[in-house]
Design a protein that fits this description.
The chain is an all-alpha fold and about 375 residues long. The chain is about 70% helix and about 0% strand.
Length: about 375
């Protein structure tokens, strides 16, 4: 008696699936999943191709809960049934689609891009959080807009094409968060950074009813905090510093949110400089003093750039950014701290000119 060929066995299995009860379909589905995940000594690619047709029929006859379990299992496999994977990825239920969209290495970039072009918000978030995202998928998500653009920029595994960068630059003119994130992202090409910094600022959000009208200039400096503001901010800043939470993440948040009193107080506490010195370097046209204060505070370059980019509402030119980064990277921590302390002595003595000369001497050492 001749053994049945794999094709004949598959035909018989498909016929059985078409007429079997729903609960039995679920058991067959579980059995095939166990076969896929447990056959380490067989060709996974061949096995996946053989069971693909059966799985497709089963996915039409089981509940969404079973499909979600199937999706979570197939998402972990390097080789998986391609048609079944495509159906799961494009499923309307996020619980079914998201495991594959987030983790599967077997789903193609073309399929991901097709799903990204028409899927819901949860599916978009899952794609934007993948460990590696090809340019065609990036472009499809950017075309949808929304918060996923920011998630893509912050994901180190995202790959950008020239078209994607062009679209983000256009968005950055209207969205300051996108501009900051893209400018601070490691690996952003210098040409893209130049275009970001040269782009005109977008229109401001309309004022709320009853709010006083702001001056018509975009470079208006934020209001300098008063003694009461500093008195309110200092206890919290000191407490954060005492427990080790006055770090780059916290200071960066102060800068982005425009929490001036918190930011100035944090720099004062971290660097040892008095508030008067911090106020001076934050408003000085030359950024050297502020870079030294940030270096003395043990902040990293990304946080320093955020502070520089948000002070006085002014844009930092590319040349200024390059100069500030060179200064930051060449300054010794001890030199910065010594200069800040010298500035404190000069401020106490009321000899600002002498303090400026001392600061210059400190940088040149």
């Amino acid at each position: 008696m001749m053994a049945n060929s794999p094709a004949n066995i598959l035909d018989e299995l498909e016929e059985a699936v078409a007429s079997c009860p729903l609960d039995r379909c679920a058991r067959i589905l579980e059995g095939i999943v166990q076969l896929l995940t447990g056959s380490r000594d067989r060709s996974q690619e061949l096995l996946a191709g053989v069971v693909d047709g059966v799985l497709l029929q089963l996915t039409e006859r089981v509940e969404a809960r079973a499909l979600a379990r199937l999706s979570a299992t197939l998402a972990e496999l390097k080789t998986a049934p391609p048609e079944t994977l495509r159906r799961l990825a494009s499923h309307h239920d996020p619980d079914v689609a998201c495991p594959v969209l987030l983790k599967s290495q077997a789903v193609s970039a073309a399929d991901l891009a097709a799903v990204a072009a028409c899927c819901g918000e949860r599916q978009q978030r899952a794609i934007a959080a993948r460990a590696s995202i090809e340019p065609v998928v990036t472009e499809a998500l950017i075309a949808r807009g929304g918060p996923n653009c920011l998630a893509l920029i912050k994901n180190p595994g995202t790959k950008f094409s020239e078209a994607a960068y062009a679209a983000l630059i256009a968005m950055a003119a209207q969205d300051g968060e996108i501009m900051k994130a893209l400018a601070l992202r490691p690996g952003t090409p210098d040409l893209v950074v130049r275009k970001l910094l040269a782009a005109p600022a977008g229109p401001k959000a309309p004022a709320k009813p009853g709010a006083s009208a702001a001056p018509p200039t975009q470079d208006t400096a934020p209001k300098r905090p008063g003694p009461a503001d500093y008195a309110n901010a200092r206890p919290e800043i000191v407490a954060l510093n005492r427990v080790g939470k006055l770090n780059d993440s916290t200071v960066n948040r102060f800068a982005i949110r425009g929490e001036t009193a918190n930011l100035f107080t944090a720099l004062s506490v971290l660097s040892g400089a008095p508030i008067e010195i911090v106020e001076h370097v934050m408003t000085d046209d030359d950024c050297e003093g502020l870079v030294m204060a940030c270096r003395a505070s043990r902040l990293n370059w990304a946080t320093t750039l955020t502070i520089l980019s948000n002070r006085s509402g002014a844009r930092l030119s590319f040349a200024e950014r390059e100069r500030a980064q060179h200064l930051f990277e060449t300054l010794l921590l001890s030199t910065s701290q010594w200069t800040v302390r010298w500035g404190e002595i000069a401020a106490s003595a009321g000899t600002s000119d002498r303090g400026n000369r001392g600061a210059k001497m400190g940088m040149n050492q």
